[in-house]
Amino acid sequence: MSAAVDISILDARIQRELFERYRDMMHKAVDAFVEVLAGDLVSDKKMTLMEITRAIAKAEPKFLTTAVEEFIRSKHGDILSLEQAQCPCCKKKVQRSVQAPRTIETLLGTSTVTRPYFYCGPCKCGFFPADAALGLSPRRKQDDLQKLALEFLADLPFERASELFLKSTGISFSDHQMHDLFAQFSEGATVEEVIPSAEEIERRIDEVKSKGKRRPVLVAATDGAHTPTRPRGEGRGEKWGPGEYKEAKGFRLYLLDSDRIVHIASWHQVCSAEELGQALKAAAARIPQQKVRPCLVGDGAPWLWNVMRQAFPGAREVLDYYHCSEHVHALADAQYADDPQKAFLWVESTMARLSHKGEVGAVIGGLKRMQPANDTAKECIRKIVNYLNVNKERFNYHGARRGGYAIGSGGIESANKFICHVRVKRSGAWWLVSNCNNMLKLRCALVNGTFEHMFDNHATREKAKRFSRNA
Ligand SMILES: [Zn+2]
After folding, report:
1. pTM score, whole prediction
2. Model confidence pLDDT, tens digit, residues 104-134
3. How far is the CA of 142 from the centre of ligand 1 (A)?
4. How many whole angstroms from 208 Cα to the centroid of ligand 1?
5. What share of the chain is helix, strand, coil (3-state, %, to 5)?
6. Torsional class of 432: left (φ above 0), alpha (ψ -120 to 50), beta (otherwise)
7. Contact 118, 129 (CB under 8 A)
8. Edge-to-edge, what's the strand order for the sheet holding 293-298?
9. Nearest CA to 285 among 214, 217, 197, 222?
10. What spacing in Å lies between the alpha carbon of 140 and ligand 1's midpoint?
11. What is the pLDDT of residues 322-373, one digit of tens each?
């Protein structure tokens, strides 16, 4: 009992001493900081705000470096001065080999940590216990900088991201380093990480549910977007092969909360319909389907209905209203080319009839009886009859609206635009499929709110890799 008391008194005294030491060091650092500014402070020269902030920013790094380095020394003094440590492989005690300095960069600038290095001869295993205690990244640029760089490059071309990174943080992060980080981060990322967890999805559903009386409508929508890709060149000296547009297939899951959309998850990849189907199934498995009313929205592409039906069997199916009306408009323009008024009325009445259950057959009958005004109209009729036949069960817009379901695919189209187009389709950009898919994963993660968690996983993986390499 008395021994425990003694230890706690001793601990308190050591802590007090550490605190006093840190305070002394920082007082000195402040003095040095002010000293650097002394010239500007006492000179007669008038200074604008910009000149003042620049002068302070120039003096600041040294101060912050001291703040960080001394803090580490105070907090981890025991581990930094270790003379013996346990080998992680054979668990035997090993004597310290050397004290090895290491330079690290964080948002607060460049610091040096001098920490003990141990080497177990029989195991051929070298290790730094302090690196693990501090959670150091094997990269010189630490986690905070990496995270910020990823967010920059998710929105900007690599070169521009690198430029702005330097301007805003004062730290150089080359586009080459960014590329490397990006590839490491995204390649290891899986759809399971990019889609929010079952708990998080349920939380979002419960939030919407608590406001309304009915179960909220969960919309699953799929769509494709053309992305500019090109392969690596095959011939010598050829960097790139010929450009080709490939379809990035994607889905978005969201809840309808009166006139608001509550985002659940987006996933886009240049991949096969089967691969997209697998991803959608993985997402669907995390949704408590008894808590929502699932509704599938898409255009006429059959691959997409197969994929959605497999993930959400028995869900309500709605053909995108606007997509449907485009087909109807195309026929009206061809058939009544010289009478816009008539074309307008025909579109109106056709869409109104399609909106009511059981009217699709009558519309198809009417189309079949229609005398085509020209060859274009004839072709339009053939197409639209086929389209209506295939999607017969997916109109009933009237009923869908009454039930609070979605009738348009605006939700997926805006996701397509926001996730794919704005970054992947920048003018002059051509992507290797792997890079394009990596970028889509990163952008989906940011939109889905899973980026932070994914970054932690990535950082843990990199640290584990480094450790196993050492071992
Ligand atoms: Zn060993």
Report:
1. 0.86
2. 999 999 999 999 999 999 999 999 999 999 9
3. 28
4. 55
5. 60, 20, 25
6. beta
7. yes
8. 260-270, 244-257, 217-229, 293-298, 316-319
9. 197
10. 27
11. 888 888 999 999 999 889 899 999 999 898 888 887 788 899 999 999 999 9
